[in-house]
Amino acid sequence: MDKMIKNATLSFNGKTIDLPIMQPTVGPEVIDIRKLYGQGDVFTYDPGFTSTAACDSAITYIDGDKGELLYRGYPIEQLAEKSHFLEVCYLLLYGELPDEGQMKDFEARVTNHTMVHEQMHYFFRGFRRDSHPMATMVGVVGAMSAFYHDSTDINDPWQREVAAIRMIAKLPTIAAMAYKYSLGQPFVYPKNSLDYPSNFLHMCFAVPCEDYVVDPILSKAMDRIMMLHADHEQNASTSTVRLAGSSGANPFACVAAGIACLWGPAHGGANQACLEMLREIGTVENIPDAIRRAKDKSDPFRLMGFGHRVYKNFDPRAKVMKESADEVLDLLGIHNNETLKVAKELERIALEDEYFVEKKLYPNVDFYSGIILEAMGFPTSMFTPIFAVSRTVGWISQWKEMIGDPTQKIGRPRQLYIGQTRRDYTDLAKR
Ligand code: CMC
After folding, report:
1. Per-residue pLDDT at 1 exceeds 50
2. Which residues of 92-208 form beta strands (DSSP E)?
3. How far from chain centre, in Å, is Cα 26?
4. Is 202 an active-site residue?
């Protein structure tokens, strides 16, 4: 398909420049400004990339107005109902749903890589016990390139493939180890007879002195959390992975960079921040004050778990997650806890309040995922590591797509310089 079929014309400073308009399969057209600096000696200005497409991608599509999320064209609601996380991993990585044989082969490849190098256990022991698990993960995943240097040559497709499988397989093990380490409990080795989400729950909650049987409802809820977080096109952490990878850095280093970015409270850290906020609000009586603070421009307080850069109607992941939250809370018989009451009331008020309705601030996926994870017994510090485990496949799929793109260049944004113009150095005695 010819991606450039018409032009936009830009006139300024007595110049007229024709800019090709690129056609997507769906979504907004994109004005190609690559020649703008060469022909017009100007840059464009777009902090936060609110109107800038930085790459071509065929992986994930979001329509923020419709509240639609598609992985390789498939709606997230259908995948959440009919598929499972490892099948979604295959879909994101390779572009199509697997047949039976392909699925079995993929599952076997992932399962064979779940254990980490034994030396990594000693590496973990270098961290303080009270480290945040995300801090440990940034370090350990970055260090994977030291443990698995036979899969760091980005020019070798086979090594790229092995690195991808290793990361999908080992991130749950690493996240569970970070958790166990923070508790002072022994690491639990992966159990390959279990499916992917059950294996993760087992590594987190089993102890050597007791049997631990994974409840299928909790395993299904974990699988859904993973599916719903698996990819989200060019979000901050994915763009970080792409930018890091654009210099030719190895995939483990790039994913470590993605984990670091994800940690922030405006991105993956929102699930932890949201639960902490619900606890801080404490009781339903305190909600009006929280709402007042959220609206007050002079107060930095925001309602965590509300709003989204792209979804301006509703977050389709939040709908599915809400159903899962109800299932998990029913199973565990949690109906009356104070945090849940605050969450439900806050959701009700925010959906009716003029400020939130007008600004289209709906509960996002993190509002509900925190509630589920807390009910399962995870401490808030594990919420973002679980997001990182789930998003790894998205990061690695986007990284692979970028490496395979012959037009790919090192990412190098420009700037609007507002500092001093050239001036001469003043000797210390004269300042
Ligand atoms: N509480 C109160 N006001 C808000 C909130 C909020 N959570 N989010 C946005 N606003 C207001 C904001 O003050 C602004 O008002 P005004 O137009 O009067 O200045 C308006 O809504 C637009 O906000 P923005 O900051 O320009 O929007 P953004 O697209 O840059 O930010 C966001 C998106 C997700 C960072 C923001 O909504 C936020 O901080 N939400 C809370 C954190 C959160 O839950 N993040 C998780 C996102 S979902 C997981 C993921 O994909 O990473």
Report:
1. no
2. none
3. 23
4. no
